[in-house]
Amino acid sequence: MATWAPAEGDYAAEVADGRRDPSMDSLRFIAVVLVVLFHFMASITTRGGVLDSAFYATWALRVPLLIFVSGWFSSAEPPTRRSMIRLLQSIVVVYLFFELLQRVQIYLINGDLRLDWDMPIFGMWFLLTIGTLRVILPYLVLVRWFGLIAIVASLLVGFAGGVQSFSIQHSVALMPIFLLGWYARQSGLRERLQTPLVRLLAVAVLLASFAAGWALVGTLNQRMIGMHSSYRGHVLFELGMRVVLLAWAALVVLAMLALIPRGAIPLVSICGAGSMFAYLLHQPIQRQWRSWGGPQAVDGYLGVALLAAAAVTLAIVLMLPAVRRPLRWLVQPRWLWFIRKDVVPPSMAQPSPITSDRAGDR
Q1: Angstrom distance (rounded) from CA 172 to CA 183
Q2: Structural domain boundaries of the chain?
Q3: What's the pTM?
Q4: 213-247 burial, b for 16+ CB within 10 Å, e for fewer?
Q5: Element (H, E) at 50
Q6: pLDDT, tens digit, 9 for 90 and up, residues 133-188
Q7: Who contacts 31 (Cβ-Cβ below 8 Å, separation ≥6)?
Q8: How many CB atoms lie under 10 A from the CB of residue 316?
Q9: Are 322 and 62 in contact (CB under 8 A)?
Q10: What is the DSSP letter of 117?
């Protein structure tokens, strides 16, 4: 999600020479449109059974799919100066700017000066999670059974009552999906999934996912599928549900990987290349809409339908190349003034020999 979003002409050229994977941009588009849609839907007061069912039926196509794509584009190679600068520009700087921007907005709206910097505002946890997982990935894959370790950590973090930070909970809980994305690319899994039989099974998986989300409205809750807090109430039940949710998310993202066309989809793929614009910019817009009484104006099924159409339209507009171009400095800054030029990353320096306190242990 944190890759540069090209203009239309540049996009076609990047696809042609293999620098860009349009199928991943198409997945981003689907995920971010659903994220924006349900962020607005979560605000309305007329929410009913159908809306709740749709929320749970599509949950794995939102954050888990974004995490999977982020893992797909992550590298387990030792960090270089270029990759470190890229991480600072696309994750750290953007996070700090939008976090500060939204805290100022909240203060101007209701006078609440939030100083809880360990609790990211609204959807900003995503940037912290992706940044954290990309930093630890080169170290994590050095360990045997890193996939199993990630799954166990995801399950155990729910018992960590003292871990209140959304970003830490999210980072650990969603680590298996991130690693699945990385592994799928490294192992060439996509090629093995895109067969007629597997695609037929993938359609069945998506239909089953929608049906399960529809049927489990009374069992699931936003805290469970968000995986951003400790287990509560019946701990063993919630532990079991996290196992189910991780498997559910893994099956859905792999089904999408099998079904998504490899080539560019008109409008969808090029907009998906700018998914970060919609993800970040819709947040202050949605908050301002709420402060102006927007949710109270939504009345009945017609109001819900109009809101859904407006949210989807907003997401698409924010991803259009014409909108991205003047806002690129804000969402995809390439600032270098804060970067030191006299520092060499450890991976580029001369490696030190491995030594031991015990003689002869080499």
Answers
A1: 17
A2: 8-331
A3: 0.90
A4: beebbeebeeebbbbbbbbeeeeeebeebbeebbe
A5: helix 49-57
A6: 999 999 999 999 999 999 999 999 988 865 555 568 888 999 999 999 999 999 99
A7: 61, 62, 63, 65, 66, 69, 275
A8: 18
A9: no
A10: T
Which of 311, 227, 234, 320 has its CA nearest to residue 271? 320
Predicted pLDDT at 360: 39
Q: For the segment 179-221, what is each residue's pLDDT rounded down to a tens digit? A: 999 999 999 999 999 899 999 999 999 999 999 998 888 888 8
Taking 50 as the pLDDT cut, the residues of the chain under it are 1-4, 352, 354-362
Structure tokens at 215: 């049927």
**Cα(257)–Cα(60) distance, rounded to whole angstroms?**
13
Question: CA 2, CA 49: separation in Å to the nearest integer?
Answer: 35
In this prediction, residue 331 carries a pLDDT of 94
- Six-digit token pair at 176? 């298996």
In eight-state DSSP terms, residue 350 is P
Could you tell me if 256 and 25 are in contact, meaning their C-beta atoms sit under 8 angstroms apart?
A: no
Q: 232 by DSSP, 3-state: which? A: coil
Is 176 within 8 Å of 250 (Cβ atoms)? yes
Q: Tell me the C-alpha distance between 89 and 108, whole Å.
A: 27
> Which pair of structure tokens corresponds to residue 57?
């039926």
